[in-house]
Design brief:
The protein has 459 residues and is mainly beta. The protein has one domain: Porin (Beta Barrel). Helix content is 7%, strand content 53%. It contains three helices and 22 strands. The protein has helices spanning 2-20, 46-51, 437-442, and strands at 53-54, 61-77, 91-104, 108-120, 132-147, 151-160, 182-190, 194-203, 219-231, 235-251, 254-271, 274-287, 290-304, 313-321, 331-332, 356-366, 371-381, 389-390, 396-398, 407-418, 424-435, 448-458. It has an 18-stranded antiparallel β-barrel. A two-stranded antiparallel ribbon has the order 18-19. Strand 5 (132-147) and strand 6 form a beta hairpin. The radius of gyration is 23 Å and the shape is globular. The protein starts with a helix and ends with a strand.
Length: 459
């Protein structure tokens, strides 16, 4: 039975790969994919019919079907620095996504996507980020209005994923098992050298179970994000504003309602062998009875040796992220990363971007066209000794009230990525976290080892 299953799977892969040459390009946001160009394809390939199935004679009304299967295995030694009981066998995370994209001409579409996530073998209590048996992940309608001079307006209403810029503040959270989405109204303007997105939304809280990720009135999120391309000298610039209201938020200095505004700017691009991505954000607002004043500045600058063996890319990432200056005053200085990437500092996802300073040199090699290897060494400190250490979800891991040490630790990461086709993705990752004095004073402070493997199939 296994032999025949392998043969059938291989046959499907060969068929899909033959068809996909120079045609298929999967996007991080699956609703960004456009298969209308297949209307002129005269082949009778089954995969072509899956991606473009006309329901009108002129082919302008059609269905497109896609999905994803992802399997991940994790093994930790001293997970959470020794707080949790040992797990010698590790655990497996699985994620399934299935979508239908219906286009009725050029001006209307409906996109629906279901998500199913499972966790097997975990010794700690299950989180809804790891397991959410089945739910509507996305479901929206979209109206398009073409404008003169190659522009267009898009109105999108319904549950949808959101991703902006470097995903430092707003991401799809692809690293963890359960991707995140928003119930939103979004107005998008696209022109030749710029795009702008205006939105108002409610964050969708994942709940373990079946079709129970209902409407959530406790977290409101709104803003505008504008990207301008082909700018002289700096190449590309992003300018944005985000607002968030939470009925309940918690930081090391207390808990209460939060109304926070974020003003940000990002400059990014590539100039010959140099790549750069620099971003700064200032936050203000109210938290309970306190005034918010927080900030962050980050950079990722690298150089690619295109004419050397394996095309090594040498880079340096740095981040300064504010923490609270003083306990018990009328000001909160802890930076809130809003909805960031889950694996912000690697797939191990040990700490998040709040009250943090880090320096991360790295090097990447292109071992072949489809195989790459990256290694990096990250050094972490608390930005303020009067604030704690937080996870990627802004949940506090340890308070800062029991120690004045600011040394969190050092992290050595290695990842090997292999993409044989557009459909398949393999990744192996190894992480060693050497605990610093702060972690040893507030908890067990044991060093962490993590090994993980990922297999992803998209269609």
């Amino acid at each position: 039975m296994i032999k025949w299953a392998n043969i059938i799977f291989l046959a499907l892969m060969i068929t899909m790969n033959c068809f996909s040459q120079n045609t298929i390009s999967f996007k991080p946001l699956r609703y960004d994919e456009d298969y209308s160009f297949l209307s002129s394809d005269t082949s009778n390939n089954w995969y072509k019919r899956l991606k473009f199935n006309p329901v009108s004679k002129d082919g302008k009304t059609y269905l497109s079907i896609g999905g994803e299967l992802r399997y991940q295995y994790f093994w930790f030694k001293n997970e959470t620095w020794g707080e949790d009981p040992p797990d010698p066998d590790g655990f497996i995370l699985t994620r399934y996504l299935a979508q239908v994209d219906f286009h009725a001409g050029k001006y209307f579409r409906t996109f629906v996507q279901f998500q199913s996530s499972f966790a097997n073998g975990e010794t700690k209590p299950l989180s809804s980020v790891d397991e959410n048996e089945l739910d509507l992940h996305q479901g929206f309608v979209e109206f398009r209005l073409p404008l003169q001079k190659q522009g267009e307006l898009i109105l999108r209403i319904g549950r949808q994923e959101c991703s902006y810029g470097s995903q430092r503040l707003v991401s799809v959270r692809d690293g963890p098992n359960n991707r995140q989405s928003f119930d939103a109204v979004k107005l998008i303007y696209n022109a030749r050298n710029m795009s702008s997105s205006l939105f108002y939304s409610y964050y969708v809280v994942a709940r373990t179970g079946i079709f129970n990720d209902g409407f959530n009135p406790n977290t409101k999120f709104w803003g505008i994000y504008t990207v301008v391309n082909h700018v002289p000298i700096i190449k590309n610039i992003d300018l944005y504003y985000f607002g968030i209201w939470k009925a309940s938020a918690a930081f090391d200095d207390g808990s209460g309602k939060e109304l926070r505004h974020s003003l940000g700017m990002r400059i990014w691009g590539m100039n010959n062998e140099w790549q750069y991505d620099c971003e700064s954000v200032y936050q203000y607002g109210k938290f309970s009875s306190s005034t918010i004043s927080a900030w962050t500045a980050s950079s990722n600058i690298s150089y690619i040796f295109f004419h050397s063996l394996f095309k090594p890319q040498v880079g340096l990432k740095t981040e300064l992220i504010s923490g609270d200056k003083k306990y018990g005053d009328d000001s909160l200085n802890t930076f809130n990363p809003l909805f960031p990437r889950g694996g912000y500092f690697g797939l191990a996802a040990l700490i998040g971007p709040s009250n943090l300073a880090d320096i991360h040199p790295y090097i990447e090699f292109k071992l072949s066209r489809n195989l790459s290897w990256q290694t990096g060494y990250d050094l972490f400190w608390r930005m303020s000794v009067n604030d704690g250490v937080y996870g990627p979800n802004v949940k506090m891991i340890y308070s800062g009230k029991k120690t004045s040490s600011n040394e969190i630790g050092k992290q050595l990461g290695n990842e090997l990525v292999y993409t044989p086709t557009e459909f398949l993705y393999f990744r192996a990752e190894f992480t060693w976290f050497n605990s610093g004095e702060y972690l040893k004073q507030v908890g067990p402070g044991k060093d962490i080892l993590m090994a993980a493997g990922t297999i992803q199939f998209r269609f």
